């Protein structure tokens, strides 16, 4: 009997030990497999990134060689008419030299205030012209406020950036200005806006930065607004200034809000995670019945925007997208190419501007609705940077936009779906390698 009891107890002990033994083996094997899987994933990511980096480096070298041998070319220009939109007068500009002359003339007429904001401000003839005119007005007692982005001007000499007249109020906007900002994605936003507001009544908004290169060699679009709608643009400037300036440097001048059903302002606010410009585009595309004429420097749309364009084309809307044939960012060009097949299959016409660097950010829909501004159709602009666009409900203004688009596309390269699919295998491979980077652009 005792022998049977001991045998039973021994059996129970063995039964208890066996699961423990198997469990340890299981977790040991699981841990080993998990670690091996992590190593494989890590190595795959490193290999992928290395190939992407190599591809991008090759493209940058080729681009540098190409740019070294590039000759400055003129591009077609047309005279654009000033139009009346409600209580405001609007004038489009498609040539930098004409725009700068108009901006400097407006600065010279200032009596009370000048607000100017630029993503890039070059240390060249054009850059010094603006500084000189602003200094003269500041000496006359006009309140002059200047904002530019520090990262956008990394290659601009510090002496130039720090040599503004002492009478000028200066804000050098700095993304992630402190260590704690590095863990806050909202603080990575750049100030990509380009604005000039004089006396709260005359304003300029669009894609042009300040520099001699942009004055003569780039095709961009700006609009001048004279009238009460400028007060809302001035308010946007003062809101930005007062948020990021020192406490004792805030602008006290008040610009009352003015509702205008014909002219609306949309500004991306990264700190508040508000990005209405993307929604503005999507809503306008959804409403389109006849035509969508879109010009953009860097076409890297997110899924919702791309789907809206494709759906519009499939329902019979004439959708045309004009992009630079070769831009100043060759890697972005190749990432952009990865969207073209989808666009062409949906019936979207893709055109390449080849006379100069096309930097415009514009769209007009059905000859009734238009937008001009600073936002590119990429993720940095749509869901990242501080941007600003004006939308205009006016057939007369849309007509001027359509004339400008027709001039730009008169000698543009139109992509053919069959020929595009037959492009060299190494081109397709390069685009495929860089495609994952579209989520960073």
UniProtKB/TrEMBL annotation:
Using the record's annotation, list all stretches that form the PLD phosphodiesterase domain: 187-214, 354-381
Which regions span the lipid bilayer? Answer: 44-65
* Molecular function, one GO term: phosphatidyltransferase activity
One Pfam annotation reads PLDc_2
Q: Which residues does UniProt assign to the signal peptide?
A: none
GO biological process assignments = cardiolipin biosynthetic process
Alphabetized InterPro entries for the sequence: PLD-like_dom (IPR025202), PLipase_D/transphosphatidylase (IPR001736)
Q: List the keywords (alphabetical).
A: Membrane, Transmembrane, Transmembrane helix
Protein name as it appears in the record: Cardiolipin synthase
**Organism annotation:** Dictyobacter vulcani
Q: Which gene encodes it?
A: cls_2
């Amino acid at each position: 009997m005792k022998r049977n009891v001991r045998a039973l107890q021994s059996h129970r002990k063995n039964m208890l030990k066996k699961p423990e033994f198997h469990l340890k083996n299981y977790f040991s094997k699981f841990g080993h497999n998990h670690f091996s899987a992590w190593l494989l994933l890590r190595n795959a990511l490193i290999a992928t990134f290395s190939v992407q980096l190599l591809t991008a480096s090759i493209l940058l070298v080729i681009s540098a060689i190409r740019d070294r041998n590039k000759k400055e070319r003129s591009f077609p220009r047309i005279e654009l008419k000033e139009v009346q939109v409600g209580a405001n007068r609007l004038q489009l500009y498609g040539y930098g030299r004409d725009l700068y002359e108009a901006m400097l003339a407006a600065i010279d007429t200032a009596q009370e205030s000048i607000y100017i904001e630029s993503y890039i401000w070059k240390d060249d003839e054009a850059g010094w012209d603006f500084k000189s005119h602003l200094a003269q007005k500041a000496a006359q007692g006009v309140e002059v406020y200047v904002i530019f982005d520090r990262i956008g001007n990394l290659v601009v000499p510090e002496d130039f950036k720090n040599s503004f007249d002492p009478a000028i109020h200066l804000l050098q906007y700095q993304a992630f200005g402190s260590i704690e900002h590095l863990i806050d994605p909202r603080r990575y936003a750049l100030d990509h806006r380009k604005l000039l507001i004089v006396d709260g009544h005359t304003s300029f908004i669009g894609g042009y930065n300040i520099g001699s290169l942009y004055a003569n060699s780039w095709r961009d679009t700006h609009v001048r607004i004279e009238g009460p709608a400028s007060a809302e643009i001035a308010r946007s400037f003062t809101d930005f200034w007062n948020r990021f300036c020192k406490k004792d440097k805030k602008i006290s001048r008040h610009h009352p809000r003015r509702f205008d059903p014909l002219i609306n302002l949309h500004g991306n606010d990264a700190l508040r995670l508000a990005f209405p410009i993307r929604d503005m585009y999507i809503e306008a595309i959804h409403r389109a019945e006849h035509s969508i004429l879109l010009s953009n420097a860097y076409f890297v749309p997110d899924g919702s925007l791309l789907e809206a364009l494709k759906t519009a084309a499939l329902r019979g809307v004439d959708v045309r997208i004009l992009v630079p044939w070769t831009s100043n960012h060759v890697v972005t060009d190749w990432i952009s190419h990865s969207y073209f097949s989808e666009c062409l299959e949906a019936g979207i016409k893709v055109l390449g501007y080849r006379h100069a660097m096309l930097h415009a950010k514009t769209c007009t829909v059905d000859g009734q609705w238009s937008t001009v501004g600073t936002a590119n159709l990429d993720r940095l602009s749509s869901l990242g940077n501080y941007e600003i666009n004006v939308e205009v409900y006016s057939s007369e203004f849309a007509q001027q936009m359509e004339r400008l688009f027709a001039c730009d596309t008169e000698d543009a390269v139109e992509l053919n779906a069959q020929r595009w699919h037959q492009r060299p295998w190494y081109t397709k491979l390069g685009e495929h390698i860089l495609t994952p980077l579209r989520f960073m652009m």
